[in-house]
Amino acid sequence: MKHFKIGIFAGDGIGPEIMREGCRVLELVGTRNNVNFELVEGAFGAHAYFSEGDCFPEATKAICDSADAILKGPIGLSHEESKKIPVDQQPERGALLPMRRRLNTYANFRPVYLPKSLAHFSPLKPEVIGEGIDMIMVRELVGGLYFGKKEVGVNADGKRYVVEALEYDEDQIRNILVEAFKISQRRKKVLHNIHKSNVLKSSVLWNEIVEEVKVDYPDVEVRHMLVDAAATALCLNPTQFDVMVMENMFGDILSDQGGGILGSLGLMPSACIGPDRAYYEPSHGSAPDIAGQNIANPYSMIGSVAMMLEYSFDMTAEANNIWHALQAVFDDGYSTADLSKPGAGVNMIATNEFGDKVLEKLAAMPVV
Ligand code: NAD
Ligand code: IPM
Ligand code: MN
User: To which CATH superfamily is domain 1-105+274-368 assigned?
Assistant: First the structure.
């Protein structure tokens, strides 16, 4: 029997609620496929800071280093609650970025997917959505502004100042571009390179590397777009995009806009892949506004499980079964509160009920 050790970091806010559904799906997948998924829980996030004085405890680091993959829930607190933790120990800076660095998960894949049949979930008009939205954003995850030099102080004029550097070397850029070209080759072979070379030198270097890397992928058409224009294009004409590649901060912002054009961040799973290690997490945050109410959408977490099966465990057929199960629940007219606007004709169900329905659908599908 195959055995995989999976770190389970439930996180803060809605994290534990959606993680529960993700784990139920993993357990069913294990049973159906005769695979032993050993789920090992780790404390990670604000709750770990309050209970253990560290948002990324040593025991959790040890799980990071030994697990075959990690499934992670969102971390972080509301704006006000965050103030209870010193800035550098807040879980975004104190846990998530160090974990990304530790695992070297430089390639972040964020699918933005909405079939035509679910166009009513989107705030965009059906004619804008056309045959459906189906793109993947490829975000560099361990460089740029997030990991560049930082300096905070008081200058000669007595003014508080800050410097935060957007740093990349050519290898970092090449590595993420190669991932984007490879995934483009498996899809529609149109790659949108998102940049800001009219201002940022980092984008000038980035684009130089695009020219170098594209030589190895002559079948992929590269289209260049400035990041500000891309923000508009995502609203006006999202179906032009298949694969988009961009640096860390641009990817953070545009991927949340991706959730916006679908209708909810709850539809945004993701995979964070490095040369040796990988972890999977929803793209969204801990949603403090709805935490503890059993109304969060677990699609993002269950979709992250599907991505884990495909990217880490070579179980693509079962991953596809999960995607189909998720869509089937929507097709039956059900969803959680985020996508059940009045008049939309959607039957609103709770987080755990959504999970129940996904499990039912999956259990009914043949194992390939
Ligand atoms: P958020 O993504 O938590 O929430 C934005 C909006 O989307 C809220 O209205 C929320 O209710 C909704 N939403 C998000 N996920 C949902 C889901 N699964 N189902 C239904 N609705 C959902 O963003 P925020 O409020 O700006 O941030 C809250 C905290 O999360 C902050 O501390 C932030 O730093 C943290 N954060 C963590 C991660 C991560 O762990 N990867 C990602 C983003 C934000
Ligand atoms: C994300 C989040 C993180 C990021 C935060 C919580 C550090 O917004 O995963 O998109 O900015 O990368
Ligand atoms: Mn983000």
Answer: Isopropylmalate Dehydrogenase (3.40.718.10)
